[in-house]
Amino acid sequence: MHETQAKTAQYVLNTYARAPFVLTHGAGMYVYDSEGRCYLDFTSGISVNALGHADPAITAAVAEQIGQLSHICNLYYSAPQADLAERLCTLSFADKVYFANSGTEAVEAAIKFARKYALDTHGPGKTGIVSFTGGFHGRTAGALALTPREKYQAPFRPLMPGVTHAPFNDSAAAEAAIGPDTCAVFVEPVQGEGGIYPASAEFLQTLRAACDRVGALLVFDEIQCGMGRTGTLWAYKQTGVMPDMMTVAKALGGGLPIGATLLSDRVAAVMHPGEHGSTFAGGPVICRVADLVLQRVSDPAMLAHINEMGALLVERLQELNSPHIREVRGRGLMVGVEFDSEVAPLIQAGYRYGLLLINAGPNVLRLLPPLIVGEAHIEEFVNKLQVTLSEAVLS
Ligand SMILES: *Cc1c(COP(=O)(O)O)cnc(C)c1O
Predict the structure, then answer these.
(1) What pTM does this model have?
(2) Taking the alpha carbons of 291, 293, 299, 303 in that order, is the dihedral positive or negative?
(3) Ligand 1 centroid to residue 262 C-alpha, Å
(4) Which of 8, 106, 325, 364 has the greatest CB tally within 10 Å of its CB?
């Protein structure tokens, strides 16, 4: 066993099942382990490394900004923060941005903003929140209440009260669940952790209409599906439905931690100094990097590339012709391959052929390559997956 593995086992709280090697460095689409083995990365650290590993522009921006001003807290103005907020608003429905340090924190902020909006606009009692089966919104006390997974919730009850879970993509059930007590509806336009399930445009239109009917806010969680991943900068752009708030994180930082809650002016107007905050959030280094990532990812040439590569990946996967593959689905470079059995053995076998893979639920292989993936990488990936498939023992 490598000493890093032994030390981790002894000193780091055991909340993750880890792969059997120690990664030491990366470049572009590849990462390398302590034995010098090379892995083609089709996970992006769970939809984070949009520009791949060790992007030279990110490295330079970090070095320059950290040498100039690394942290000042939110009592002072920061040009990188203002620049990033401007770009996020210019490129989305939003008028204002609240910065956080992670996806979960962006969701927590959205919960608080929705509660405050309902209180100021409708008076007390309108505190209910609706989320959907298969959804994932994070693991802190509030966000966990919106994440209806028994294994995640059961040991930690009681959770934040007032949350109702309705079946995903079921318009009639959602209409019934959204009532006068509802202050917000949280939904992923494409579910990630739940197994790569796109919400239908009709379902999101129904949510929009139901929210308008009862004066609730519609919140899109684009933490995983945003930032160009689906072939448009935001997944909601493919549906024609606009939210009142949106949470963004993961790829926004290009490998450094950040979260952001985007709001319309109507919602932003209810929040005042001192009502929410964070010491680290919106710091100069991360905002400088995120602005650069957002600029690169929102480039129309990049979005066209994502669509082209996503289509190629799906086409090649469909040619694989494995009796174990049930369905290939997704949007852009957010692709799920559903198998007829658990994919854990496939992920393990993939390591031997130099592939980094993750699942989304027991039977779905979740493909989230860096957005810079090229045609040759896709060919390499599918060839290696084919070998892995013939090697792995799928029950
Ligand atoms: C990952 C994720 C979160 C939580 O983000 P963290 O940065 O891990 O806190 C919330 N919502 C969705 C859709 C996610 O994929």
Answers:
(1) 0.98
(2) negative
(3) 15
(4) 106
